[in-house]
Amino acid sequence: MPRAAQFWQVFLRHPRLAALLFGVLAACGFQPIGFWPVALAAMGAFVALLAEAPDAKRAALLGWLFGMGYFTLANSWIATAFTYQAEMPPVLGWLAVPLLSLYLAIYPGLAALGAWALVQVGAPAPKRPGWPLAFAFAGCWTLSEILRATVFTGYAWDPFAMILLGPFDRPGLAALAPWMGTYALSGFAAFLASALAILLRERRLVPLVLVCVLLAAGMYLPAGKPREGKLAFTLVQPDLRQERLNNPEYYEANFQRLAELSRPREPGARRIVLWPESGLADYLQPGYPQRYYDQMTALGSPEFARRRIGRVIGPGSVLLTGAVDLEIVQGRAAGAYNSVTMLDGQGTIIGGYAKSHLVPFGEYLPMRELLEPIGLSRLVPGAIDFLAGPGPESFDLGAYGKPGIQICYEIVFSGQVVDRTHRPDYVFNPSNDGWFGAYGPPQHLAQARMRAIEEGLPVLRSTTTGISAVIDARGVVRDHLPAHVAGRMDGFVPPALPPTLFARLGNILALFWTVVFLGGAFVAMRRRAL
């Protein structure tokens, strides 16, 4: 028996451990590791293992174990978030990651069960990683990611498609996203992995080498010459560490750092200034009881806070800044909004957006009446929950363009980041990634790049600690500031592309590709039966 076959027999003797291992290796394709060949090989090996499952129960179990490994590594940054709060023991973070994975792994389990069942019903004879299973698994994986991003408000972090995103200066095979969408691209990546496994098992070396060469070429194909825009911007990364953000002793120093990095280099020049989420302590909206203004800064006046911001950015500038707004009921704060406030050079509010897709356990505590008595709380400090805004919006700022806003976590939801009836010129994505550790920010940036590619829109990310970036409409990072570096980027907002097919159809396109993949499975089964 060839050595490779002997090695594979070891996995077949321990299929549960093998599925868990393949899930961990598949997650190695995500940033900051970025070993996409390993991820493809691991996914292909898992589909080959799935083909050997003797029954539906074993197929679902193998998929669930694969998901456990996959999500435990991919979401390991969540454990770091627990070190930035005082209400719960930080060690709970290392328990929270596998507990979350227990749930998230259901979706790969469903994908594995669905693919196995379709192939067994259609053609029960051979148990090999053949083309019917490759197509069926691609379709079922696509559908599972759509469900994962939707059920219980959704959790769309790290779809498998992210392994196809190229380095900063090129989009990689993610360039297909305008015609597929992220979730269908995940199915395509799973199909590629299965195809490689099939070719390897059948020892079809010439097509195997050809596919590998084309795959590598697609991942590193140059993006082409960049196009230049006309709207000037100043994007600020103040490097405000998480322990400073909610400490009143640092509120004024935090503002002064933002101000220092934002002053115009040409007085009166027209530009947009971009500040991150969580960096500004002041309440900017009028009408709250005075005690709320007093407890945030010594200014005591939202009008004064706005005027001094206007003096900082100068006439000719418009600021888009992360802020917190309050919902006041009978003189008390009944809730808060994670917002972006837009101010002109006189400190006048000219627009505002409230975050719609909130982070469970981060910005609100689900089932608070049940969980709070047993000691669970939010990861973000505060006694009141954040409230959801109405959803994606575009704001016409005249000469300053038409921004769409997506605050932090919102940017990871494919097909949910743009108001399709009023397409923006660019997307502003302020974020606070300081509690994501070293592993989360590169993943977050990668998903912002994927939204840019899908929608054909530039994305500008301003974060408290990094990674801040200017991303053009092809997903190319035109400029960036690395983590834990205070600085500013000046330039011109890259132009938008014409609306992509995905920009017009959204995730209907992913459903279309699901049907295509599943149709391919039935065609392959019929051909095998002849």
Main sheet: strand order: 5-4-3-2-1-11
Q: Label the structural class.
A: alpha/beta
Uncertain regions spanning at least 5 consecutive residues: none
- Report the sheet with the most strands, covering strand number, pairing sense and barrel closure: 6 strands, mixed
Portion of residues in beta strands equals 5-15%
Task: Itemize the secondary structure elements and their pairings.
Layout lengths: L2 H11 L1 H12 L9 H16 L4 H19 L2 H5 L10 H13 L1 H17 L8 H18 L28 H4 L1 H20 L3 H16 L11 E6 L4 H4 L5 H10 L10 E4 L15 H7 L5 H12 L3 E13 L2 E13 L4 E6 L13 H4 L31 E3 L20 E6 L8 H16 L3 E5 L4 E4 L5 E5 L5 E6 L8 H5 L2 H22 L1
Parallel strand pairs: 1-2, 2-3, 6-7, 7-8
Antiparallel strand pairs: 1-11, 3-4, 4-5, 8-9, 9-10
Helix pairs in contact: 2-3, 2-4, 3-4, 3-10, 4-6, 4-7, 7-8, 8-10, 8-19, 10-19
Task: Briefly summarize what is shown.
By secondary structure, the protein is α/β, with parallel strands linked by helices. Helices cover 44% and strands 13% of the residues.
Your description of this structure?
The two termini are 31 Å apart. This protein has 530 residues and is an alpha/beta fold. Strands 5-4-3-2-1-11 form a 6-stranded mixed sheet. It has a 5-stranded mixed sheet with strand order 6-7-8-9-10, with helices on one face. Helix content is 44%, strand content 13%. 52% of the residues are buried.
Any key phrases for this structure?
six-stranded mixed beta sheet; single chain; 11 strands; elongated; 19 helices; five-stranded mixed beta sheet; 530 residues; alpha/beta
